[in-house]
Amino acid sequence: MSTIATGAAIKPGGDLLSRERIIAGPGFNRWTIPPAALAIHLCIGMAYGLSVFWSPLTHALNGAKPVACPAGSGLWNELFTTSCDWSVFGVSLTFAIGIVFLGLAAMAFGGWLERVGPRKAGVVAALCWVGGFVVGAFAIHIHQLWLLWLGLGVLGGVGLGIGYISPVSTLIRWFPDRRGMATGMAIMGFGGGAMVGAPLANILMGHFKTTTDIGVVPTFLTLAAGYLVYMMIGAFSYRVPPAGWRPDGWTPPATRSALISTRSVALENAHRTPQFWLLWAALFLNVAAGIGVIGMAAPMLQEIFGGGLIGKVGTAFTALSGPEKAAVTAITAGFAGLLSLFNIFGRFFWASLSDKLGRKNTYMVFFVLGFALYALSPWAAHGNHLALFVLFICLILSMYGGGFATVPAYLADLFGTQYVGAIHGRLLTAWSAAGAIGVSLVGLIRQAEIKAGVPTAQLYDYTFYVLSAFLIVGFIANLLVRPVDDKWHMSDAELASAQHQNKAPPVAQSYGIGLGGYSPGALIGWTIVVVPLLFGLYETLSVAVKLF
Fold first, then answer.
1. Which of 295, 305, 332, 451 is the most exposed place for a label (fewest CB within 10 A)?
2. 267, 107 Cβ separation under 8 angstroms
3. DSSP helix/strand/coil, 280
4. Domain 18-65+78-250+492-548 shares a fold with domain 258-484
5. Residue 308 to residue 146: CA distance in whole angstroms
6. 310 Cα distance to chain centroid
7. Is the pTM of the predicted complex or chain greater than 0.70?
8. Selecting from 1.20.120.30, 2.60.40.1880, 3.30.200.20, 1.20.1250.20, what CATH number does the domain 258-484 have?
C-alpha cells in the first residue's frame, strides 16, 4: 500500500472543508484522487448533454400539444410569457450562458481555489451546479425562461467553472511523473458526463412523462439529487500532498525539455507573459474549430449524406419519407454519440501521450493532423465515403477533447505547479470565447450558403476550409511558445511564503506514496465512477452501431 511520511506531524486545524484538514497522512493512496475528480466531472459534464431537454421544453405548457406564441412576439416575449411555449433557440441559449459563466467563474475563483483547497471548491461547485437544476426545475414549473437562464445558465455555469478547475492543481501535484495522464483521466469525465447523463435523462423523462406533463421537472430534481451525492463524494475524497512531496522511487529527470520549468510563476504575473496569450490563442482556435462541429453534428450528417445513410445515395434528406427520415435521424444520433465517445477517450489518450511527446509537440499534432482532416472532409463527403468522413470527424473530436486535457499539464510545464489551477481558470476564458464564436460562425456560414443556393450536400465545404484555416493560425501560435523568461519566476522566499499561506506543511524528506498498489478506498472510488461510464458506453455504442 502507498504511504506518506513527513518530517513532522501534521496537526489538523480549521473547519471540515479547510485546506489544512485535507493534507494527506500516512497510508494514503494517490490513486484515489483521479476517481474523486471523475465523480465531479461526470456530473458537470452533463452540460454537453443538456440538448436532450431542448425539444421537450418547446412544448412544456401542455404536454405533447404545442402552444405557439403570437407571430412576431420575439425572444423578449419568451423570457416572461406564461401563455405560450418557448423556442428551441430560446432554451438552447441556456447552454451558451452556462459556457460563458464557466469561463468567468474559472477566472474569478481560480486564486480562491488555490487558497482554500479542492474540497471546499468541490462542495461550492456541487451546490451551484445542483442549485442550477433546482432553480431550473422551478423555472419550468412556473414557465419563466429568464429564471431558467439565471438558474441553469448563470448559477449552474458558476458550478461548472469551479468544478472544472477544482482537481487540476491537486492532480498535477500528486502525479508529477504523469501530469498529462492524471489530468486526462479527470477531464475525460467532463466529456463522459453527457454520455452518461443524456441517456439517463431520456429514461427519466420517459418514466415521468404523462399526457399533460413532459416530465422534465421531476427529471431535473432526480438528476440534482444524484449529482449532489456524487459530487459530495468526490469533494470529500480530495486530499492534497504536503509541499515538496514526490512519489516513492521517482526523481525528476536529470535532463528535461527547456519548456518544463522547475520554478513557478505567480498568478498575477502569468497573464503578463507572451506564453499565456499564445497558449490562450492555441486553445481558443482548437476549441472553436471543434465545438462548431459538435453543435451541428446531427444536421450536418443529414444534409451531407441524406438518403445515402440508408442506401438511397443521391436522395436529399428533405425528399425522404417519414419513416426514412426517422431512420436517418436515429443514425445521426449514433454519429453524435460516437463523437462524444471520441471526445472522451481522446482526452485520456492525447493527454497521456503528451507525457511522452511533450505538450508542445502534442499540440503540433492537433493542428497539423486537424488541418489535413478538415481539408479532406469535403472530398470524403463529395465521394460519398461515409466511413472515411465519420472517421475524419471522430479524430478531429478526439483532438478537441485532447486539447482540453493536455492544456493543464502544458501550463504546469510553463508556469510551474504553485498556481496552475488558478492560471488554468484564467485560460478557460478561451473556451467561453470559442463557444460563442465557433458555434455562431458555423451557423452563419451555413445560412449564407443556403441563401447563395449552394446544394445541400455542399453546405459545409466552406465551413471546413475556414476551420482548417483556424488550425493554421493555432499552429503558428503554438510554434511561437518559448520557455518563460526568468524574470517572471518566483524566488525561493516567495514560493515558501505562498506555500505557508496555503497552509501546506513541508516534508522533511522526499519519500511518500508508492507509484501504485491496492487499497480499498481506491477500489471503491474507481467502482463508483466506472459503473456509470460503462452504462453510458453501452448506451452510446448501441446507438452508434447503426452507422455501420
1. 451
2. no
3. helix
4. yes
5. 41
6. 33
7. yes
8. 1.20.1250.20
3, 174, 516 from 247: Cα distances, Å: 10, 8, 10
Smallest CA-to-CA distance from 152 within 96, 89, 206 is with 96
Residues 200-238 pLDDT 10s: 998 999 899 988 888 999 999 999 999 999 999 999 999
* Nearest in space to 144 (alpha carbons), one of 204, 94, 212: 94
Contacts of 377 (CB under 8 A, 6+ apart): 389, 392, 393, 460, 464
DSSP 153: I
Instruction: State the Cα–Cα distance between residues 87 and 105, nearest whole angstrom.
Output: 28
Q: Mean pLDDT of all residues in the chain? A: 87
- How many angstroms separate the CA atoms of 184 and 106, rounded? 18
CB 191 within 8 A of CB 45: yes
Q: Rounded CA gap, 536 and 532, in Å? A: 6
**Residue in this structure with the C-alpha cell 483547497, named with its chain if needed:** 117
Cα–Cα dist 231/238, whole Å: 11
Residues 53-71 pLDDT 10s: 888 898 888 776 788 888 8
Cα–Cα nearest to 398, from 294, 487, 305, 322: 294
Report the candidate in 194, 183, 181 with the shortest Cα–Cα distance to residue 338. Answer: 194
Fold of 18-65+78-250+492-548: Growth Hormone; Chain: A; (1.20.1250)
Cα radius of gyration (the chain): 24
Residue whose entry in the numeric block shows the C-alpha cell 421537472: 217
**C-alpha cell of 325?**
427520415
The residue behind cell 430560446 is: 90
What are the cell numbers at 142? 412556473
In the block, cell 479527470 appears at: 186
Q: How far apart are CA 175 and CA 178, in angstroms?
A: 5
Residues 97-152 have pLDDT tens digits of 998 899 999 999 999 998 899 999 999 999 999 999 999 999 999 999 999 999 99
Of 51, 122, 61, the closest CA to residue 88 belongs to 51
| Ranges of each domain in the chain | 18-65+78-250+492-548, 258-484
For residue 532, give the amino acid letter.
Answer: P
